[in-house]
Amino acid sequence: MVQTVLHKSNTRGYADHGWLNAHHSFSFADYYNPERMGFGVLRVLNDDIIGPGMGFGTHPHANMEIITIPLEWSLEHKDSMGNGTVIEHGEIQVMSAWTGIRHSEFNPNAQERTHLLQIWITPNKIGVTPRYDQIKLKMKDSENRLEQIISPNREDVGSWIHQDAWFHIGTLDTNLSTDYRLKKPGNGVYIFIISGSIEVENIPLETRDGLGIYDIESIHMRALSKTRILVMEVPMR
User: Fold this and answer.
1) SS3 content of the chain, % helix, strand, coil (to 5)
2) Sheet strand arrangement including 197-200
3) Nearest C-alpha neighbor of 39 from the set 182, 212, 181, 210
4) DSSP 83-109
5) Ramachandran area for residue 70 (φ above 0: left; ψ -120 to 50: alpha; else beta)
6) pTM of the model
7) For 47-60, how does the pLDDT look when each residue is reduced to its tens digit (9 = 90+)?
8) What CATH number is associated with residue 24?
9) Which residue, 6, 130, 177, 198, is most buried by CB atoms nearer than 10 A?
10) Rounded CA gap, 6 and 63, in Å?
């Protein structure tokens, strides 16, 4: 029997640090909800707005797959592996923080706020060498279809992580329908609405809503308005 968990946007955790406004789909930092400790191996989904010239100072991570998706403007990244780069809107950063990595993240824009999603995935192994990747999205590939951006396979399109997870992103025109067929039996899918409105298995979703769905082989979606969505297929255990 199909199982669902609905997270409306206004039920997320929220923190206002002045320079940072953050919404948390799952328990994170000072936001703790025992019923929201993740969805399968999807542990963190943060929706962050960082003020001009502000950011996170150098801090550590270990044994986590971290995916960063700028939604507006850009993010400057520096880490203990020697990487120093700016991730622009339309690009995605993937970082395997395994045996330990330290990094900083700043908004390099002096006038504009930057807006991003940061996602943490629990890996399927621990203790391997940290790695960094940055890819540019082919925006036309996500027009009225789902573009694959993350997979477990190094030879696939997009980037890869150490987990049997697949991420897709897409922009769907009003009334356009599409189906997503799961790649691996036993996985679940968490759908996050970046903007717009959509029906997923007849459940209406609005901007910044999230829907987890599992015990299903294929998921039907129909856009109610022009909608941009992030579809994350992850192991449930």
Assistant:
1) 5, 60, 40
2) 177-181, 218-223, 197-200, 203-206
3) 212
4) -EEEEETTEEEEEEE-S-EEEEEE---
5) beta
6) 0.96
7) 999 999 999 887 77
8) 2.60.120.10
9) 198
10) 28
State the residue range of the domain holding 105: 3-235
The residues, ordered by sequence, that sit 6+ positions from 120 with a Cβ below 8 Å of its Cβ are 42, 43, 44, 64, 65, 66, 67
- The residue among 80, 62, 79, 81 whose CA lies nearest residue 127 is 62
Among residues 195, 179, 183, 189, the alpha carbon closest in space to that of 229 is found at: 195
Q: Which amino acid is at 208?
A: R
> How many distinct structural domains can be found in the chain?
1
pLDDT digits (tens, 9 = 90+) for 119-161: 999 999 888 788 899 999 987 878 999 999 999 999 999 999 9
Cα–Cα distance measured from residue 217 to residue 64, given in angstroms and rounded to the nearest whole number? 27
The token pair at 128 is 């391997």
